[in-house]
Amino acid sequence: MALENLAGKSIAGYRLLERVGEGGTAEVYRAEHPARGACAFKVLRERLRSDPTVVKRFLREAGYGSRVVHPGVVRTYDFGEADGLHYLALEWAKGEPLADFLHREAPLAPADAVALTRQLADALGGAHQAGIIHRDLKPENIMYDPDTRTVKLLDFGIARDAEQVEERLTRTGFFVGTLQYVAPEALSGELVDGRADIYSLAKITYYMLTGRHPHEGRSPRELFQELLSGKAIPLSEASEDLTFSPALEAVVMKGLARHPGERQQTVTEFAEELEAALARRKDDPKSRGWLGALKNMVNKRPSE
């Protein structure tokens, strides 16, 4: 069945210019608005418009996203129903999914990876302050602008309100999130807090630093068991070609702890510990490579 193409139509004051993407529940268009300029316009897919659970989840994404106002989070402009269509209008984020960038460029230099992690931590911190837990943090849900080296967080489709007991929109016993990045405590479908986002952020940081995942199950079942066991590949063992300071490794692996209480307790704390570990590495002559070692030898005074 051919997908409905709404390009060329105007909905709720937005002129849809071209379809630029599609997911399981919605199609995304590049659109123009007289006052807001370029926008991303999400429309619930035609076959799902009569499903009340899907509609509720779609509107929940819009409502949660609109509560988070932060430069590192794609802004929600408008949402509702018009002409029989459920829609969500968002800020147009320049660049490409971080997943595409990392697929080409990872591993990144530690300084670059930590800088991006700090931006993501700030954005997540804004969401947490608004009482929103993302729960589906992954490179595919992050836009990266190579010109400015900035990232923007998007997609609050399975976010939850930290202050409310959630009405389940998934079947009991099933987790929500993406298996490779979901926190272990969410695998049984239990309610989670902001420390689940810390775990996901630590996984992204690990991947940026190494180009590999800390859990590499060859099948969903094997990966599921690895996540539950909490046995992550140590950062220093991810690649024979990469070396990391013990301090940097300790911070990342702490963020990947199986139990939430053993992780950093806020995303800001995670980012600050990473920056501190990176700063210590720069101050350590042993970390400056062969040139630093040579300078250290030359500057040593002869023993008397």
What does this structure look like?
This protein has 304 residues and is of the alpha+beta class. It has two domains: 17-91, 2-Layer Sandwich (Phosphorylase Kinase, domain 1); 96-287, Transferase(Phosphotransferase), domain 1, CATH 1.10.510.10. The protein is built from eight helices and eleven strands. It has helices at residues 52-67, 98-105, 110-129, 195-210, 220-229, 246-255, 267-283, 289-299, and strands at residues 10-11, 14-22, 26-33, 37-44, 76-82, 85-91, 96-97, 132-133, 142-145, 150-153, 160-161. A six-stranded antiparallel beta sheet has the order 1-2-3-4-6-5, with helices on one face. α3 packs antiparallel against α4, α3 packs antiparallel against α7 (267-283) and α6 runs antiparallel to α7 (267-283). The longest helix has 20 residues, at 110-129. It is globular. It starts with 9 loop residues before the first strand and ends in a 5-residue tail after the last helix. Residues 161-176 and 287-304 have low confidence and may be disordered.
